[in-house]
Specification:
The complex is a heterotrimer of chains A (about 325), B (about 300) and C (about 270). Chain A is of the alpha+beta class and about 325 residues long. Chain A folds into 2 domains: about 230 residues, P-loop containing nucleotide triphosphate hydrolases (Rossmann fold), CATH 3.40.50.300; about 90 residues, Nucleic acid-binding proteins (OB fold (Dihydrolipoamide Acetyltransferase, E2P), Beta Barrel). In chain A, helix 5 links the parallel strand 7 and strand 8. In chain A, helix 2 packs across helix 3 and helix 3 crosses helix 4. In chain B, helix 13 packs antiparallel against helix 14. Chain B is built from 14 helices and 2 strands; from the N terminus they run ααββαααααααααααα. Chain B is about 75% helix and about 0% strand. Chain B has 2 domains: about 40 residues; about 230 residues, MetI-like fold, CATH 1.10.3720. Chain B is mainly alpha-helical. Chain B starts with 10 loop residues before the first helix and ends in a 7-residue tail after the last helix. Chain C has a single domain, classed as MetI-like (MetI-like fold, Orthogonal Bundle). In chain C, helix 4 runs parallel beside helix 7 and helix 4 packs across helix 11. Classes of the chains: A alpha+beta (about 325), B mainly alpha (about 300), C mainly alpha (about 270). Chains in contact: A-B, A-C, B-C. The interface between A and B is medium-sized, with 17 and 11 residues.
Chain lengths: ~325, ~300, ~270
């Protein structure tokens, strides 16, 4: 069984800028795959390379075992949900969804029936005759989704699919996209700069920085075992421990990541279990964040951030001990 | 398993593939016909015309001598011909200034105060005269300015004959009646080109955010100060853009001074007579170089002032 | 919202704006008025009497009006078609991609109306002369097409700019090749702009006189007929009747063009 998408050493330059720089990547069939990174990191260009809007300057791209470079977008069995949805303003919702089928020469009655089904799939049954201008942002996105899915793509590409939606809608769409992907079994590849979105939706995540992939793995991999400081910082917040500090507290002598939620704050002098490390310090910032409270504690070597359940009463200047399991310290290969 | 959608590769599909692989080729193919027409035929014609100005007319045979010479340009800077140039450029400058003054309030009102249907009305009120028939508009002024016509009648009713007669009695700009005077020519020019001044001025003013004006007032500027220091400088590129049209169109027009004006020629008329009855194509060509040079300089200045952004 | 209360315009501004607009529109009223005057030898004001007989005279007993009218319609139609083809091609090419010299080329297309008409006219005339092309209906049409291209070009280029690149990509993504994308997405999007550009080009060509006098041979278009009537008047009110007609023929396409392009392109028109 061939890979859904395979990048081998792919580069794409714009002028002197290497937007994508020697990227190799395998996406398995049926995966929900996230391309995560800050803006300008090359993730969107990768998506456009899969769609066919961009062609690689170097390297090789395969989609389900077939060479993709040189193949125009209209000859790829790949469909895209655009960031701004790109609905055709001169067509109705139904005509938008049926567009791909019309181009393929599917008879009118059949494509109308399929468009109807696709709209029902995205919970927009009965919207066929609406104009796109009458739709809300969330509805537009559903139409864009239906318009792509109705063609039965082997790979569905989503460019910042939830970026334009408000928080409530975003959470709802996350779940819907997830269940849609599971039930359809299609490979989904989506681009996002939101690490929360990537971690909650994807089976696997590729993290981009400066046109390169810095880490690929499952959400728990990249969150719990970041291999570089960039990943540790970008995926959630993390305490980055220097090699000396890590070694002095039972870790290895390398740059090490320690997630704030793994740190417990206890009164100064409390006993520490054998499999745990600890450090003394002074509370410098207490910030209430609803479900949790975020505490910055200055130890004699460096400040550490801990998130603890809300309700704990700590105040600035208080002397405390920070306690964390030694196993929570994750050595990173990539150095600083 | 195949990746490619089952899509028959017809003729159109195959051509699309070629264009997809070489987007520049498509751009080139699209551009070629219009560029051949405008770039080669039209610009070629302009150059051919320019070339003609370096030929001369043999006074005895009346034939064009196809040899390079600057003698035609010597003729151009001859007394009476320089008079024609000065006359035309002065007229163009005055028309431009007057247009700017009349256009500004209209543009300002349309940009700042007109909303909704009023805005649409203003837009149409400027667009219609801009596009409607040039000759009809000139003709309308022939009616109005005629000795027995509208203005004379109104002057009588309002007992302003003395004023009208006084204007007509003025040296140079006066004449037997308004339709045979520079005043008349000037009025018609202003009338005909005014919409060309209003539209870019309005476009520039639309770009002045209302909060600039409020900010200026907030900082203690009098309305007059706000106008001088904020509104006018921001509107200036628009006015300059408009003046490109009013100036250029006045320089080259030969119909208006022919229908409303005295017998002294402007550049356009000179070109027309020289190439027609006189058959002196070289001198006619040299005359057209004058507005071309003036406009080239003008456009260069305008570009430096950012006037092209509002065109 | 807030703007209604505080944007009361100064009286002086309102007066001068109104006066300016009156100056732009009143003169045309006299064209209409004089079409009904009983005085045919002078422009006496007020007209000594009013009559509708000149419309009948123009229609029945002035056979010299009809051939120029037909010629003008013919020229305007062909010039518009040529301008639509060339102008659309140019706009499509120049909005496709950024390339070296694009600015210069777009300036070239504006040149025929930025330069005084007399320069365009005499340049084309001498070019036709040099190429020994006899002056005919075709030289008139080519001359008109030259300056009509820019009208179509301007309209089309504005619309191409608004046509988001994503729509074209979306169409290709859904399987449409270049031609299909043009037919199903680009053309519907730019159609009204082209129609508007075509209308304006028609209006422009229909009453053009400056370039025409240079590129015409013995042919008389309606504006050339009118010009000769202005210089050597016969029945002045008949000229007015024709002027009224020309005015209306150019006005209708202008209004239609406005209607076609009003949405979005100037935001003020969209009160509701």
């Amino acid at each position: 069984m061939s890979r859904a998408v395979r990048f081998q050493n792919v580069s794409r330059r714009f002028g002197s800028v290497r937007a994508v720089d020697g990227v190799s990547l395998d996406i398995e069939p049926g995966e929900f795959f996230a391309l995560l990174g800050p803006s300008g990191s090359g993730k969107t260009t990768c998506l456009r390379l899969i769609a066919g809007f961009e062609q690689p300057d170097e390297g090789h791209i395969e989609i389900f075992g077939e060479t993709a470079e040189g193949v125009p977008p209209y000859r790829r069995n790949v469909n895209t949900v655009f960031q701004d949805y790109a609905l055709f303003p001169h067509l109705t919702v139904g005509e938008n969804v049926a567009y791909g089928l019309m181009i393929k020469g599917v008879a009118k009655a059949e494509r109308e029936a399929k468009a109807k089904d696709a709209l029902a799939l995205v919970k927009l049954a009965g919207y066929e005759t609406r104009r796109t201008a009458q739709l809300s942002g969330g509805q537009r996105q559903r139409v864009a989704l239906a318009r792509a899915l109705v063609n039965g793509p082997k790979v569905l590409l989503l460019d910042e699919p939830l970026g334009a939606l408000d928080l409530k809608l975003r959470e709802q769409m996350q779940e819907e996209l997830k269940s849609l992907q599971t039930s359809l079994g299609i490979t989904f590849v989506f681009v996002t700069h939101d690490q929360g979105e990537a971690l909650s939706m994807a089976n696997r995540v590729a993290i981009f920085n400066d046109g390169k992939i810095v880490q690929v793995g499952t959400p728990s991999d990249v969150y719990e075992r970041p291999t570089t400081r960039f990943v540790a910082d970008f995926v959630g917040s993390s305490n980055v421990l220097s090699p000396e500090f890590a070694a002095a507290h039972g870790g290895t002598s390398s740059w090490t990541s320690l997630r704030p939620e793994r740190i417990d704050v206890v009164p100064e002098g409390a006993t520490v279990a054998a499999d745990c490390a600890s450090a003394k310090g002074t509370v410098s910032v207490v910030s209430y964040q609803g479900a949790v409270t975020r505490v910055t504690v200055v130890t004699d070597k460096l400040p550490l951030i801990a998130t603890i359940p809300a309700g704990a009463s700590l105040h600035r200047g208080e002397r405390v001990t920070l306690v964390w399991p030694k196993s929570a310290m994750v050595a990173m290969g990539g150095g600083a | 398993m195949t990746v490619a959608a089952e899509k028959p590769r017809g003729m159109a599909g195959a051509i699309s593939d070629v264009f997809f692989a070489r987007p520049q080729l498509l751009t080139l193919l699209l551009l070629a016909p219009p560029l051949l027409w405008i770039g080669i035929v039209y610009v070629g014609s302009l150059f051919a015309l320019l070339l003609q100005s370096f030929y001369s007319l043999d006074d005895f045979s009346g034939l064009v001598v196809h040899e390079f010479t600057l003698s035609t340009y010597e003729q151009l800077f001859d007394g009476s011909n320089v008079q024609i140039i000065i006359r035309t450029v002065t007229m163009a400058a005055l028309v431009t200034i007057a247009s700017a003054f009349i256009a500004f309030p209209i543009a300002y009102y349309a940009a700042r105060y007109a909303r909704g249907w009023m805005k649409a009305l203003f837009y149409l009120a400027v667009m219609m005269p801009l596009w409607s028939s040039y000759l009809v508009k000139v003709y309308a002024w022939k009616l109005i300015l005629a000795k027995e016509g509208v203005i004379t009648w109104f002057a009588q009713i309002l007992h302003l004959n003395w004023l009208l007669d006084g204007i007509l009695a003025l040296p140079v700009i006066g004449g037997p009646s308004l339709s045979f005077s520079y005043v008349g020519t000037f009025l018609v020019f202003v009338y005909i080109w005014l919409p060309y001044m209003i539209l870019p001025t309005q476009a520039a003013l639309e770009r002045v955010p209302a909060n600039f004006i409020e900010a200026s007032a907030d900082l203690g500027a009098e309305p007059g100060q706000t106008f001088r220091t904020v509104i006018f400088p921001l509107a200036l590129p628009g006015i300059v853009a408009g003046s490109i049209f009013t100036f250029s169109l006045t320089l080259g027009d030969y119909i208006i001074p022919q229908i409303v004006g005295n017998s002294r020629l402007m550049i356009g008329q000179a070109v027309y007579t020289l190439q027609g009855t006189a058959g002196n194509i070289p001198l006619a060509a040299a005359f057209t170089v004058v507005p071309m040079v003036i406009m080239a300089f003008y456009l260069w200045m305008a570009k430096r002032m950012g006037a092209f952004d509002v065109l | 919202m807030s703007s209604d209360g505080k944007t009361k315009s100064p009286v002086g501004l309102r007066i001068s704006a109104t006066a300016g607009l009156l100056f732009l529109h009143l003169p045309l009223f006299f064209i209409f008025l004089y079409a009904f005057t009983t005085e045919e030898k002078s422009f006496a004001f007020p007209p000594p009497g009013l009559t509708t007989k000149w419309f009948g005279v123009a229609w029945n007993s002035r056979p010299d009006i009809w051939p120029p009218l037909y010629l003008s319609l013919q020229v305007a139609a062909i010039a518009t078609i040529l301008a639509l083809i060339f102008g659309t091609l140019a706009a499509a090419a120049l909005s496709r991609s950024k390339f070296f010299g694009r600015e210069t080329i777009s300036l070239l297309f504006v040149l025929p109306i930025a330069l005084p008409g007399i320069i365009t006219g005499i340049a084309l005339r001498s070019a036709f002369d040099i190429m020994s092309i006899p002056f005919s209906v075709w030289t008139i049409m080519l001359g008109h097409a030259t300056f009509c291209i820019v009208v179509v070009y301007n309209n089309a280029v504005a619309r191409f700019r608004r046509l988001s690149g994503n729509l074209v990509e979306a169409s290709m993504d859904l399987g449409a090749d270049g031609f299909q994308t043009f037919r199903y997405v680009i053309l519907p999007q730019i159609g009204t702009a082209l129609l508007a550009g075509g209308m304006l080009a028609f209006a422009l060509s229909f009453d053009e006189v400056i370039v025409t006098t240079f590129t015409a041979g013995q042919q008389t278009t309606l504006p050339i007929w009118m010009l000769s009537e202005l210089i050597r008047p016969r029945q002045r009110p008949v000229t007015n009747v024709v002027a009224v007609f020309v005015f209306l023929v150019t006005l209708l396409p202008i209004l239609a063009a406005y209607y076609l392009t009003r949405e979005g392109e100037h935001t003020g028109g969209s009160s509701k």
